């Protein structure tokens, strides 16, 4: 039960008061290509040789990537994983003002968030548009896309659970003292109300203390677990002790379906994103879709070997034109401008980083509400297109876009995470 002191710590998610304009053609291109990226990253996750070679430098130079790789190998690599993969993915884009194209920032394969609250914000914006319309005025709801991110995420998780035999409960792995719990609880509520499936919440420390394997089945506090959905485990701070890594390995060694598997988690690494942009690599995985998918690629550069030397020269000549990205998720990790320059000048082995073109989106004036305070600021936006993906054996059972999220941040901010405190939840107004 939540006491008065604890209840006082909760606040609403930061939001925009009205949707932000976004070109319809760019939105539709991002939406149309996103399912192809879900299939692509699943394909990458199933290619041991490609993962091993692509991540070699990151494994050598980044302890977190190395620890994830250790879980992958100790759980049996490709042979040890379930013959199915369920994904709640999000492909993030920024509108590149010079080209007018939505250029891809990244593909998130683990712990995508705000499907529930993003859906609520879209609904709020549609409601406010109708409420504020003058008598007889027709509101153009076609310009405000219906957002089914919550139902799409819940439905694909339920489908994955059913595909594995409708066994036990779904476990949602969360962070201790979770700040974004209401976004998560909406998903659990939807899954129970729509599909009758119970969800249990657990931190990795709790899984380590109270989880076990029984003939390959993951059990937690006496309940069998048929599917594990990660809303934590994507950042080094989620593993303060070896116990959390033991829990991750326990989950991976179980016969529960994972969303995502550690292989799919590794496939979402920045180094994989950069490798796929190299000539011919994307085509080897997606020969029929590669041309369309490359339309949304930003310029990406390896920092290994001779190619890395040339990339470093490019970045040092124009530090404001690039972003230095480590193998991290969750916001607050990238290096820009002077910080980028200082890190490159420091030298050493940069195999744990990639270099990316800095995307230059148009700015807007946005009325925002954060912690009850209304403020109008100059902003930039990042579009996320959710994807629902289920493969069973070699058959792709579900692969569709599942709603969207616009994160809008102050134009003076380099980072864009809502939970990290940089942005507000928004929705697109297509023009």
UniProtKB/TrEMBL annotation:
Co-factor note (free text): Binds 1 Mg(2+) ion per subunit.
Top EC class, one word: ligase
Metabolic or biological pathway: Sulfur metabolism; glutathione biosynthesis; glutathione from L-cysteine and L-glutamate: step 2/2
The Glutathione synthase substrate-binding domain, residue ranges: 170-267
Names of the cofactor(s): Mg(2+)
Positions contributing to ATP binding: 106, 270, 325-334, 336, 356-359, 382, 409, 415
Residue numbers binding Mg(2+): 106, 108, 329
GO cellular component: chloroplast; cytosol
Alphabetical list of InterPro entries matching this protein: Glutathione_synthase, Glutathione_synthase_a-hlx, Glutathione_synthase_C_euk, Glutathione_synthase_N_euk, GSH-S_sub-bd_sf, GSH_synth_subst-bd, PreATP-grasp_dom_sf
UniProt KW Ribonucleoprotein keyword: no
Keywords: ATP-binding, Glutathione biosynthesis, Ligase, Magnesium, Metal-binding, Nucleotide-binding
GO MF annotation list: ATP binding; glutathione binding; glutathione synthase activity; magnesium ion binding
Binding positions (substrate): 90, 110-113, 178-180, 184, 231-234, 407, 418-419
Protein name: Glutathione synthetase
